[in-house]
Design brief:
48% of the residues lie in helices and 0% in strands. The protein starts with 24 loop residues before the first helix and ends with a helix. With 203 residues, it is mainly α. It is built from 9 helices and no strands. It is elongated. The chain folds into 2 domains: 49 residues, no CATH class; 131 residues, Hypothetical protein af1432 (Orthogonal Bundle), CATH 1.10.3210.10. Bound molecules: fe (ii) ion (2 copies). One fe (ii) ion binds next to helix 5 and helix 6. InterPro entries: HD_domain, OP_Dioxygenase. Pfam families: HD. This is HD domain-containing protein. It comes from Qipengyuania soli.
């Protein structure tokens, strides 16, 4: 059960304004307190959403949750750090709500918590992954070439080659989601950068 489900929303104190321009310090103390608690529940919400990929095969040899676990397991066993492994775990989480731009959904979720390079890999893995199948669907296999010369080109190519395109093996012994949960919680513990950083700072 996620943290958000344990909150009694009906009986919580609420701000009094009808329009934001009527807002008072009192109103925003209430909302700020709620926000801090809600933000802490992010790892739970992300893990809950990732579970929606369970049983979703889309014609692939493994379902999307197994693909995610396998990508993360391969990255972890290859010695990647936690930011990278969490990115690998979540890289396709956008398949449900971003059916036409899934890499950007995952990239946005992890952006406050990872390096610029790890974010870039996530955001652009779609074009690099296309190298392995776009030509079967009438698309340009070399779509990734538009990023040639970019400082993160090689890192993204490597992610797809070593961990993503290789993670469709039904016989691979992937770690279970519980194995990665503590990593997700550690990586999402505190944003490295956020326009709301001051609002989540404890008084
Ligand atoms: Fe993907
Ligand atoms: Fe993938």
């Amino acid at each position: 059960m996620g943290v958000h489900e344990t909150i009694d929303h009906e009986n919580r104190e609420r701000a009094k304004f009808r329009e934001m321009k009527q807002g008072t310090a009192e109103d925003w103390a209430i909302i700020g307190g709620e926000y801090r608690a809600f933000a802490k529940g992010l790892p739970d919400r992300v893990l809950d959403h990732l579970k929606l990929l369970d049983g979703d095969f889309g014609g692939f040899p493994v379902d999307r949750l197994e693909h995610s676990l396998q990508t993360a397991t391969r990255a972890h066993r290859d010695g990647r750090d936690e930011q990278y492994v969490v990115m690998a775990l979540l890289h396709d989480i956008g398949d449900t709500l971003g059916s036409y731009n899934h890499p950007e959904v995952a990239a946005s979720i992890i952006k406050p918590f990872v390096s610029e390079e790890v974010h870039w890999i996530c955001q652009n893995h779609g074009a690099f992954q296309g190298y392995y199948y776009f030509h079967f669907l009438g698309m340009d296999q070399n779509a990734r070439d538009k990023f040639m010369g970019h400082p993160h080109y090689e890192a993204c190519r490597e992610f797809c080659e070593k961990y993503d395109q290789s993670a469709f093996d039904p016989d691979y012994d992937s770690e279970p989601l519980e194995f990665f949960e503590p990593m997700v919680r550690r990586v999402m513990e505190k944003p490295l950068a956020s326009m709301y950083a001051k609002a989540i700072a404890e008084e």
